[in-house]
Amino acid sequence: MKCTVLGGSGFIGQRLARHLEAEGCKVWVPERDDSTIFEKPLDHVFYCIGLTADFRSRPFDTVRAHVSLLSEILERAAFDSLLYLSSTRVYGRSENTSEESDLPVLPADPSDLYNISKLMGESLCLASGRNGVRIARLSNVVGSAMGLENMVGHLFAEARAGKIRLKTHPASAKDYIFIDDAVCMLGRIGMGGCERIYNVASGEQMEHRQWVTALSDFTGCMVQVDENAPLQSFPVIDVKRMKREFGFKPTPISKVIQQLLMNLNTFG
Q1: Which pLDDT tens digits describe the chain residue by residue (268 residues)?
Q2: What is the pTM of this model?
């Protein structure tokens, strides 16, 4: 089996490429702007290109990453399948997180540029007319060596330095999925999923105070919570589709925390 991982230098792309190789696949990770992606068969494509924390200050780069290159690949490239990595952030204004739910956005809000561009990428995938094109809406992926643009990665780096500054209310909650779970599901969905769209998440919420407490207990670091820190709560992500088709069972969050604490020196 041959696979092409686009965006393979990033946190998720690197781990996905290693996972696919461990599963016996021959994996190609093209360099950025490698025009040869349009000159030879790409076989099974995993589109991991994207911006995260800096999308508000780089709107044009965000659209290029999430939409422009994708459109060229869908139109010009030769592939057997393509999995587009979207995000569960698209549910930010919705109470229903099933894959078929309506997804409202607000163009006037700069934060929604990310959601709109991801949804445009999804729409291109669905309208392309190409066989084997699927979408994975990824939750907040956590694992050792996370970048500082990841909130949890930033907390771990601060804890290692001796002091955490929490800028959001401790009761703020999100869905987090362990990197090993995520790349396993991405591989299975990309090369054999029966549906067009999948939520790739744990289906469980974790409060920010749980991360901070675990880090404080483990490292003895100081913790400061900003005055009037905003409460940020996201809806629980529906993962019934992934559980039904693949028998998915997320790694318990207690084991995820333990794994990350044991790799604390990889942060920062």
Answers
A1: 899 999 999 999 999 999 999 999 999 999 988 999 999 999 999 999 998 777 888 889 999 999 999 999 999 999 999 999 999 999 999 989 999 999 999 999 988 999 999 999 999 999 999 999 999 999 999 998 888 778 899 999 999 999 999 999 999 999 999 999 999 999 999 999 999 999 999 999 999 999 999 999 999 999 999 999 999 888 899 999 999 999 999 999 889 999 999 998 888 7
A2: 0.95
Where are the chain's structural domains? 2-266
CA 262 vs CA 180, 218, 219: distances in Å: 16, 10, 11
Angle among Cα 234, 240, 246 to the nearest 5 degrees reads 125
CATH superfamily of 2-266: NAD(P)-binding Rossmann-like Domain (3.40.50.720)
